[in-house]
Amino acid sequence: METHVASNPEENLFETRIRNLWNGFVNRFGKLNGKIDLYLPSEIADIQIGGLEKAQKEVESFSHVIRNPEIAKRWGTEPSKGLLLYGPVGTGKTLLAKLLASKALVPLFHLNIPNLILLALGMQQRWVEFLQRFYELIGECQRAVVFFDEIDLLGSEMSEFFQLAPGFRSQALFLVVQMVDQLAQYPGVIVVGATDRPEVIGPQLIKRGRFQRLIEVPLPNDQQRKEIMELHIKRAEQIAGRQLFDKLDYDRILPRLASFSGANIADLIQRVLGEKVRQEGNGEAVGLVTTEDILEEVSNYEHIKQYMERIFAKPSEGAYL
Ligand SMILES: Nc1ncnc2c1ncn2[C@@H]1O[C@H](COP(=O)(O)OP(=O)(O)OP(=O)(O)O)[C@@H](O)[C@H]1O
Ligand SMILES: [Mg+2]
Prior knowledge:
Layout: H1 9-29, E1 36-39, H2 53-67, H3 69-74, E2 82-86, H4 93-104, E3 108-112, H5 113-123, H6 126-141, E4 143-149, H7 160-163, H8 168-184, E5 188-195, E6 213-216, H9 222-240, H10 250-253, H11 262-281, H12 291-311
Parallel strand pairs: 2-5, 2-6, 3-4, 4-5
Antiparallel strand pairs: 1-3
């Protein structure tokens, strides 16, 4: 994703300071990519989400809670410090967490819970120091979003993850609950959880003071699918700096995307464009992407999509980038 330089010099200074502190943290504890990742506001300033109007509004409201807590007070509210984004795979939960941080102009710490738990196990004694330094970093930020991704892992005793080590689930749950409770102490921090299986998450996590406010992130409808497709087309054309798509006949395309998530649509567009790259690479004459090109790729993709849903209950996010 394109990186913008923060326009305000004060924000620039803040971001540089936090990035330096983060680098110190990473140097101390080794490679953390995919376990905890830091996104600064200028790096996620151009997040664009199609559909999800309700969820986007709720997220916007919480961005004000972080940014201007006095507004919440003026309306006599006691806003939750914890949100839970729930909905099918690839519908935009991670995007919404980024949108929240971006609107609130605060750093986003993206914690991948399965990977973080493995990290904690590997660290043993150093985990306490790790947490302490992490909280120090949060304290330096003052305001931040801490995103607990894939927390459903904690909800299922049966998950493969825990079959190897019975009793480990309660340890992992304890670890996460402890972090959520600690982070709730910081007035400017909001914790956000994400899951595609809310039904397996236990009452220890969905409760007052923890992930209290539930926000649904559903699959898009036809109109929203069109919007998402247009966003991804626009982005590709921006990167290319030219028109890539012919005028599309959405009346023919949309009925074929009936169960597609936002991630599926992003994937589809990448595949259609990938085919153009192949053709041009082979010296073939290539025109703009047409409705026919898209419909053809939908046929290929439908098989892959079904396969992914069956085999990988949860395809990795990287697959959609
Ligand atoms: N509503 C949407 N609008 C625009 N793009 C979307 C939308 N939903 C998903 N995408 C595309 O799919 C990619 C993956 O989405 P995201 O990671 O936010 O989904 P998720 O709900 O977190 O999925 P998972 O359950 O796999 O974690 C995004 O980077 C984006 O390219
Ligand atoms: Mg996600």
